[in-house]
Amino acid sequence: MKWQGRRRSTNVNDQRGRMTGRGVATAGGAGLILALVVFLITGDPGALGGLFGGGVTQQQQQQDYQPSEREQQMFEFSGVVLADIEDVWGALFPKYNETYKQPTMTVYTGAVNTACGAADSGVGPFYCPGDQTIYLDLSFYDTLVNRYGADQGDFILTYVIAHEAGHHVQTLLSVTEQLNQYRQQAATGRISQTDFNEISVRYELQADYLAGVVARGIANKGYMEQGDMEKAMSAAEAVGDDSIQRKMQGYVDPDTFNHGTSQQRKTWFRRGFDAGDLSQWDTFSGAI
C-alpha cells in the first residue's frame, strides 16, 4: 500500500514501552490457547476481564523504549491506515443519516489496561466498546505470518485494523448492543451456546465485510498496490476458525466456531470490497 508521506491519524495512543504494574494476569496454558483461537475479541465489555482478571486498577510505568526501525515503520503505517478508516467512514456515515465518531487506536507492547479489563498480547488485536478503542500489539504481525501462515506484506495489517474498526462501526450502529443481548440469553440458558456461536460468526463476518469496505475506499484513492488484495485475503484465510483450530488442536469443531471459516471470511471481505458501502452488509439474514 502506498502510505509514505500521507496523513497519519491523530487518534493513535502510543503506549509502547509501558508495562502494567501489579495485578495483571496473563493468559497461560489453556487460557492462552483459547485467546489465540478467539483472536479477534467480540464486543463484550466483560470478555477480557473474565479471561485476564479485569477490574483491577493498575498503574502503568513508563520505561525507556527504543523500537526497531521495522517496528517504527509498522507503527507509522498503522497510523495511516487509521486515517484511511476515518476518511472512509466519515464519508459514508452521512449517506445513512448517521454521524461517525472516530475511534482511538492504542498501540502497546506486552500488556495493556482497558475499559474491558487488562489484557496481554496473547489475545491479538481487539476492539473495546467500553472506551471505543482498538488495541494493537505490533508483534501480532509476526504471529499472523509465522504462526498462522499469512503472507508477508503491510496490507495484512490493514485488514486487521480495518476489521477491528468494523467492530467500532457495529458499536455505533447498535449491532454490538444486540450481540450482547444474545450473549446474555446464552448465559441464562435462553439460547444454546451453539446458537450464540452462530450469531457471533455472523457478527464477525460483518466486521470482515466492513473491512472490505475500507479496502475499497483505499483502492478508490489509488493507494492499493498490486498484491494488496491477495495479502488481505491471506490474512482472512489465516484467521478462519477452521484454520486456527487445525493448527492449534489438530482437528476442527464447527459447533465452536465464533468467527467463521477461512472461506467465509474471505468471501465477506470481498463482498464488502465489491460493494464499497453498507448495501450488502446484512450477515444476519440468510446463508453465510
Shape: globular
The SS-based structural class is: alpha/beta
Mean pLDDT: 88
- Backbone CA Rg: 18 Å
In terms of quaternary structure, the protein is single chain
> Count of helical segments?
10
Give the SSE order as H and E letters.
Answer: EEHHEHEEEEEHHHHHHH
How many domains in all?
A: 1
Sketch the major β-sheet.
Answer: 4 strands, mixed
Give the strand line-up of the largest sheet: 1-4-8-7
Helix content: 40-55%
The stretches of 5 or more residues where confidence is low (pLDDT under 50) are 21-61
Number of strands: 8
Strand content: 5-15%
The end-to-end distance, rounded to whole angstroms, is 30 Å
Walkthrough of the structure:
With 288 residues, the protein is an alpha/beta fold. The chain has one domain (12-275). 49% of the residues lie in helices and 10% in strands. The protein contains 10 helices and 8 strands. The protein has helices at 30-38, 47-52, 69-92, 140-147, 155-172, 175-187, 193-220, 228-238, 241-249, 262-275; strands spanning 12-15, 18-20, 60-62, 104-108, 111-114, 117-120, 126-128, 133-136. The chain has a 4-stranded mixed beta sheet, with helices on one face. Strand 7 and strand 8 (133-136) form a beta hairpin. Helix 6 packs antiparallel against helix 7 (193-220). The longest helix has 28 residues, at 193-220. It is globular, with a radius of gyration of 18 Å. It starts with 11 loop residues before the first strand and ends in a 13-residue tail after the last helix.
